[in-house]
Description:
Elements: E1 2-8, H1 20-29, E2 33-38, E3 43-48, H2 53-68, E4 74-78, H3 79-87, E5 101-106, H4 112-117, E6 127-131, E7 134-138, H5 151-158, E8 162-166, H6 167-178
Antiparallel strand pairs: 1-3, 1-4, 2-3, 5-7, 5-8, 6-7
Helix pairs in contact: 3-6
Amino acid sequence: MTRYVALLRGVNVGSTRIAMADLRRLVEALGHDDVRTYLQSGNVVFGSTVRDAEKLAGGIERAIADELGLTVPVLVRSARELAAVADGSPYAEREKDSARLLVAFLRSAPTKSAVAGLTVPGGENVAFTVTGREVHLHYPDGGYGRSKFTNAYLEKKLGVMATTRNWKSVQALAELAAG
């Protein structure tokens, strides 16, 4: 059995509301084991014998649509993949305030030309590193909430669906997924 983390995009931050108890129930009904949610923002850790992350994501998306009538994009990473993300931040060693570190998880790796064209909006001090299907973000002068370098901006510039988590959540999810 492999441990996974499902990251739901845009849950409980706007009009799309899902109770975590309902989310756990849906994921369990799909046949997954040891289902746990983290916070109220659509983070689910579970075990599964299914080895295809896209199939897992699609199953959760369909269950949410069928059971709750909501369209919610879902990204899935294995525990091993999430551990690599948590261990691979190029900014964690130099930034003590974890609120200034985030990771944008991408549905797929962006094209090289999209990555090459990604720039920070004028006047902002944001560092970023695109590594495969993740973008490590560092906001040294303040938080993500005041920046124009947002999840929506990344989606537009990179041409792929994304969902962003703060560093504390990334670390906690990696620990939960590890066991």
